[in-house]
Amino acid sequence: MTHNGNPVAGTPAGAVRGIRDGSGEFYRAIPYAAAPAGAGRFAPPEPHPGWPGVRDGTRPSPTAPQPTRDFGRLDMTPYFGPGWVPGEEYLTVDVRTPAADGGKRPVLVFVHGGGFVTGSTRAALYDGRAFARDGIVLVTVNYRLGIPGFLHLEGAPANRGLLDVLAALSWVRATVAAFGGDPDNVTICGQSAGATLVGALLATPGAKGLFRRAIVQSGSGTGAFTPEQARRVTAAAAATLGTEPTAEAFAAIPDERLVEILPSLAGLDLRTSTATDPLAGLSQFSLVLPVQPADGLADGPAREVDLLIGTTTEEGHLYLVPQGNLESSTEEDVLALAAQVHPAPETAVAAHRAALPDASQGELRSAVLGEALFGAGTAHLAGAHAQISGGRTHVYSFGYRSTALDGRLGAAHTVELPFVFDIADEPWLHGDTGLLGPDPAPDGLAARMHATWVSFARTGDPGWAAYDPRRPVAEVFGTAR
């Protein structure tokens, strides 16, 4: 169907007009749930009431309320997108498809990262043209962030941002056939906070039947806060706002104020008698769960789901190099970080030192940080999934070192994204302050990595042997130079 020359997809909620280009069709800002306004910001997502006529899906969506984030000299705008673009109707998806026809194509649903407080479908890195070119329907998802999305509040359901992603998956199940996708062949994929959300979905009973495969890029199966940790964040937020720690009280506070107070929550000590801080102080928001996702897989769809999971080899560099802290780090800095994230800090540092005998203090600090944020939780999730799923787990490691910031950024957190989306040659990712640095991307790496994701979305086979915890071997992309 077309309307004034533009393609139109008919969905259960109403018709949507998109645009057609060289890679297929693009439909933007399609609501998968009602706008979360007022008290609705702290309620479960509700179905969208639908619309008459043909909805304009040619323009981008508003984004979830969020602060700006600064990574020093490193240009992270391709990752974070435009920041907060106000508008109530932001619980939306963008859909890239070869064609909104009857074709039953594999579907990849992508959940963005950003520390549970930033990010959106509008980020340039999530350009889905290469997926559409290769016969995949790509759906990117906005979800509630920060206080509306993840603050633990009396009178509100926990993990509202996760409930949003679950609602988006239900929307995909009911609607993606209208965009030429196969609702029985859905892969949920996420990076960073988005990957941690995907890990949680593997352990969520309500996610059963909504996806066949999952991809966890630089996430963690052990990144959730305990209820006690969540209560500390809630108490601090309520005290800063001068209000009660309830959904009813917070519903009266405008989004501007909820975003404004976020910097005042930085630096909270979330260590308890039973838990270290799984996010090392980098975010005051995470999932709040009684057990970690990696320990609760039997409760969710994990047993029947194919899993592709991995990390970069220098994850921690993103949080040290742009700020100038890789060179300035001291032995005391390394120990202080280890004390924040590890129950036996001296033992942890000694183990990293033994594995990296020539590392500087900054490199050691990066290794401790990367392992705490992503490495340990990824290994735990991979091992737990391999034990229950019978050969459905595939593990990778990404080692290509970006030459950004005078050649020092390395295989940092987020550097794999341009290769997955096959856009590593884009000029805006290069130059000394671009994510990939001044050097051209290595020949063939983006093509290989993107093809792996396409193959996995099609069949569940990325092209190498399943993971065996007794012989834990990972496929390597872009080995370190």
Explain this structure to me?
- The chain has one domain (about 1-475): 3-Layer(aba) Sandwich (Rossmann fold), CATH 3.40.50.
- The protein has about 475 residues and is of the alpha/beta class.
- Helix 2 (about 130-135) links the parallel strand 8 and strand 9 (about 135-140).
- The longest helix has 29 residues, at about 360-390.
- A 10-stranded mixed sheet has the order 4-5-7-9-8-10-11-12-13-14, with helices on both faces. The chain has a 4-stranded mixed sheet with strand order 1-2-3-6, with no helix packed on it.
- The protein has 16 helices and 14 strands.
Q: What is the H/E string? A: EEEEEEHEEHEHHEHEHHHHEHHHHEHHHE
The coarse overall form would be globular
Instruction: Output the CATH topology.
Output: Rossmann fold
Number of domains: 1
Helix content: 25-40%
Strand content: 15-25%
Structural class: alpha/beta
